[in-house]
Amino acid sequence: MVLPRVQIKELRRTYGFEEVAIVPGDVTTNPELSVPTFEVGPYQFTIPIMASAMDAIVSPAFAGLMAKAGGVGVMNLEGVYGRYEDPQSAIEEVRAASRETVTEVLQKVYSAPLKENLVQERVRDLKTEGGVVAVSVTPQNAKRLAPLAVEAGAQIIVVQSTVTTARHISNSYAGLSFSDLVDEVKVPVLIGNTVTASATLEIMEQGIDGIFVGVGPGAACTTRDVTGMGVPQVSATMECAAARDEFYARTGKYVQIITDGGIRTGGDVNKALAAGADAVMIGTPFAQTFEAPGKGFNWGMASPHPALPRGTRLNVGASASLEQVLFGPSRRTDGTHNLVGAIKVSMSMVGAQTIKEFHEKAELVAAPTIATEGKIFQRAGQI
Known about the structure:
TIM Barrel; two-stranded antiparallel sheet
């Protein structure tokens, strides 16, 4: 008896930040020659760093500080800022909740209705703080809230969900047409999140200006545990960046790739940029700043989901100023402070003066022992 051949699914190897390293170049430059700017539509930012649209991180005041630093903070219009006259009191309620009740408290806090007048008021608050006004909405509410935000002065619209595609099928509501949204708001639109080249290309065809890469890597996110979904960030970034390059070669339009989540150190930032990202979006490291409204706590945007929470509240502690995290001076040797200095030094080590040059000159290698090789005393705590 001849048994039939069995078709077995194959796994492809993918890599995260701790499994790769950047190869030093043959030519080096002084770090002060490194200019790590990035652009979104007509807006140029002097550092390639965005602060995540998390309630415990980006308030109007924090967004203003990010703008002064040369980056951009994205406010979540569907969070407490769009639901409460006094959003800080809602944040304090989440902070005060016990470990056993925090998910229930989050669900209660975020069950309050969105108020369109508050959405516009928060945008005006952001304008008052100065800088480019960037706000986040979900695909379900983008058609309603994005035009209101732009009317009030929003200059960049971010549309984010756990997984976003250009072809969403639903029996309960009409799917969002990104091209229609772009035509209506007439400001740069950034979309996320995705991890594949094919989904990235389809979204780029809609006329958007940027793509967020990452499903489940954030410190406060439990999507990978709850749903099993995700691709490690280095591989996901490389794949989406390849789609960006193909799209640019074919159309002449350059769409920004922004690696979102899983980033803790300057080394992580640099590996994302070397993999093809134009910028990174950072959450929990900013939650650890004295200026963040969460005062050392953080939680994800999907944490309060009424049926399937996909995040947790973290007590990460407030341990540094935003200035220290971005520019130093660093009092730590673990790479969590002076992220911009780390970017410039890494760029200089491959002889790159711009991020696009970094894309071209930086070589990544699979290096599963990169974090442990020769580090026996550090791992033993003998420092």
